[in-house]
Structures are given as C-alpha cells and as structure tokens.
C-alpha cells in the first residue's frame, strides 16, 4: 500500500484513484475531532471533501462538550422566546474578505440578518466615549459636512489606515491558495507572506511607524480594538489591529452564525456527539489513538484533531505529544444582553437632557490614561442596541430595546441604574423582571479570545503523528473565519499525509477484534 502511494507521488501521475480503490475496500480512516466550533466544524467539512476527492473513505466523529454546536459562535433568544430574534453572544459578524464564511453562507443558502428595526430608530449611529465625553459621534450615511469635519479632525489618517489595512489583508489572503496553502507551520507561513513584522509589534508601534496620527489611533482605532478584542493599542499586535479596521461588507446569518457550522457538520456526515467531554487521549503501540469520554466510553482513531484551546480542554494526553501548545493568557469577557423600554440616559454620558445617545457606544481611554492595560475609566468596552421589538411577555405588550454590553466585570444594578437613568434592583440586574426597567437579562462569562500580544512564533499544527491542533491560529488572528481556515488547512494536511502514505498502523486492515486486543495489552 505504502509503496503504491509513494510511487504515485514520485511519478506525479494520477494514481490516487487506483491507490484508493483498494484502500477504500478495506478501510475508512477513523478521525476524531474534539470541538464543534468554527475550527472543528470546518475541519470535518473540508476533510470529508478532500478525502472524497482522493477516493478515501472516512469515518469522522466530532465530540462536543456543550449541548450545541458552534462553540463561541452561539446565540440566545431575546426574551427567552423562540419566535423572537436570535442574539449573538460571541462571533457576531464576518466580513467580505472572509471567504470561507461567505462561501458557506451561499452554499447553504442562508440569508443575511436584516436590521430594519434599527434603521427606523433614526439615532446617531456611533459614538466614541472616553468616560468624560464623546470624542466622536457619527451618523449613518453622513453628509459631506460630516466628512469635512472628520477630515479636519483626522487629516489623511483614515485614508492611510485604510491602505495599511488593505496591504495587511492582501498578504493574509495569500494563505488561502497555493503555494502558501496548505501550510505545515503557521510561523513559517506568516514569515513567508511578510506579516511577522506586523504581528511582532503592538498596534501603537505599528501605526506610529507608518505615520498614522496619534489622534485617529487613540480615538478611532483603539475604540475598535476595545470592542473587538477588549484591548488597548499598546497591548494588541499590529495585525489584529488592522483586522479590527477591516469591516467592509460586514454581515451575519439570520437566526445565528452558528448555522454555518451546523451545516458544515451535516454536510460532512460526521457523527456528532454533543454533551460529550473527552478526558483522555492515549497513543497506542500501533500509532492510533484511544479516546476516552468522561463517561468512560472509549473508541480508537487514526487521527485526532484538537479543535479548541487545549488549556481549557481539561484533557490528559498520554504520552505527552512531541509538541505541547503553551498556555497563553485569554481575555475573560463579560457579555451581557438585556432588554428595556428605556434608552440610555443622556446624563450618564454628559449630554444635555433630551439628547440621543448613539446606538453604538464604543469607548477609548482619555489621554491621561494612555498606558493603561485594561478598561480604564469608561468602565466598559461597548454598549450597543443590537435589536428592538415587542416583548411578547409584558402586559400590555411594549416596545423594547435589546442591549449588548462588553465589560471586564459583571454588569450590576448600580451600573444599569446609572446608564439607564432609572432605578434597577439587584434582582432585576441578576434575572430581569418582566414588567420592570430591565425585563430580561442574560449574563455570559467566557474566555473569548487570547490576549493578542505581539508575537513572532505560533503553535504547531501537528502536535505529533496523527495529532493535530487548530487553535494556534487564535493568537495570530482570532475570528470565526481564521478558525475555519485553520480547520481547512489541517484537513488538507491530513489528507495529503494519507495520500503520501504516512505510517500505516499494523493490522490497519484487519477486523475490529484486533483493536480490542491492542487496547488490552
Ligand atoms: C465510525 O466510528 C465510530 C466511532 O469509533 C463507530 O462507533 C462506528 O461504528 C464507525 N462507523 C462505521 C460505519 O464504521
Ligand atoms: C434558498 O432559500 C430560499 C428561501 O429561504 C428558497 O426560496 C430557495 O428555494 C432556496 N434555494 C435553494 C437552492 O435551496
Ligand atoms: C448531558 O450529559 C449528562 C451526563 O453526562 C446528563 O446528566 C445531562 O442531562 C445531559 N444534558 C443534556 C442537555 O442532554
Ligand atoms: C458594580 O459595578 C461597578 C463597575 O461597573 C463596580 O465599580 C461596583 O463596585 C459594582 N458594585 C457592586 C456592589 O458590586
């Protein structure tokens, strides 16, 4: 078997089909994917396709410890009502250059979420708050006069930033195609495409070195790194900073972005085991892996893909793989969704009574706090109105706004009372009160993404023979798209190894009883 495939490789003739016919007759490649988020779902989807192209049959099992697919791409129903809008808690949007997400949305015939209600609210679009004042307020579809004011304030900085962003994104996009794709080492790929000097410095250093004015950086770009990655410019690398500025064609799937991953899994025909935690992965003498669930069930696989941050997987690996990913700091983020008939209080934002607070309140640091690592005096990263509509549970029914807050600590009654200018009780802040000031509230705490500190080396993708890791990409760029890209890359590397004839487990084509004996040895 091995010899045939080697020959095929050397001769560069299309023997893949010949190779695989006999291969298929005996055996399907058994693959375990641990994690059904963006990385794991994309691995399953692309692996099924790549393997099918090469005529290799697969038996893919996806283990997911949650009772839902999508991982950090997940929604909750507003007002806990199945007929009300699904609100994104994590990965909320993707953009035009996110080819995997965009293509999947089309392939699976998913529609884009509309924002008709919000368009009708006619409020100022976006404001950047520094804890004292709004340093910038924009209106959707602003006039020439709004543009002129921005030009006066920031000069050519927006234009230069846009060029810088396009150059970085252009380099990144070469990772999708040959000769860079598939890459065996993320560090090498990033060096090859010329992005190491962008990931190796802070956003602050990168912008300064490229002549972007301090004012635009502090007031606008930093507001974006704070809402997207809960980081100030001195604590996030240059590339992730540029990613924050790539917003063109932002979209979301009606009903929740997680549906893309659910469709990917369905299309892969993987066997998806929800509510199943993997506790142990043991390498067997023949090079295959025995995977053990927390309930004590075991099964054996040829390849295992770890598709989530290893440090939170609570997984014993025996023996330790050749490469063990480092433990890295992740951001502990509080995401709060709540509904209220009240708008944000203008007084809480030092505006005159009667003034409208913008729909998106982003934040930045005041000048005198410029070296703070953390939320600083604004106290939160962003507050936005994500949707609005009729609360089906109130009597009489009433129109309410649905807010989303990103903050470094739990949102409490004092804070809610302050921003709404209305008394909110502790009970309401914790659980909501159907006819109260806060009618519904959902608190979510998670490790949402790594702290994107500058770095020039990244985790290995191939931790050992037959053992793969998709999450190293998160410290390069943490988005749904890049996790999906990492899964696609791992799927391709795995398929290529199968085709080129990496080790074959002894007795790989024998009956299942053989495996049992191996385990017991
Ligand atoms: C696929 O693998 C799973 C897990 O090891 C196993 O339970 C199942 O029987 C396999 N299916 C086929 C068709 O071999
Ligand atoms: C796509 O969805 C729309 C409505 O959601 C439906 O009318 C259409 O037939 C679907 N197309 C395909 C190719 O499934
Ligand atoms: C998840 O599995 C546990 C047992 O491991 C069980 O007690 C629990 O009810 C399951 N949850 C759901 C939602 O299926
Ligand atoms: C409420 O939250 C604010 C920060 O938003 C914090 O300063 C305050 O100590 C909290 N109050 C209580 C009682 O926990």
From TrEMBL:
Cofactors demanded by this protein: FAD
Residues spanning the membrane: none
Domain (Prenylcysteine lyase): residue spans on this chain: 143-500
Residues annotated as signal peptide: 1-18
Domain of life: Eukaryota
GO MF: prenylcysteine oxidase activity
InterPro entries: FAD/NAD-bd_sf (IPR036188), Prenylcys_lyase (IPR010795), Prenylcysteine_Oxase1 (IPR017046)
Family: Belongs to the prenylcysteine oxidase family.
Pfam families linked to this entry: NAD_binding_8, Prenylcys_lyase
Gene3D superfamilies: 1.10.405.20, 3.30.70.1990, FAD/NAD(P)-binding domain (3.50.50.60)
Keyword terms of this UniProt record: FAD, Flavoprotein, Glycoprotein, Oxidoreductase, Signal
Name of the protein in question: Prenylcysteine oxidase
GO BP annotation list: prenylated protein catabolic process; prenylcysteine catabolic process
Keyword RNA-binding: no
Annotated organism of origin: Decorospora gaudefroyi
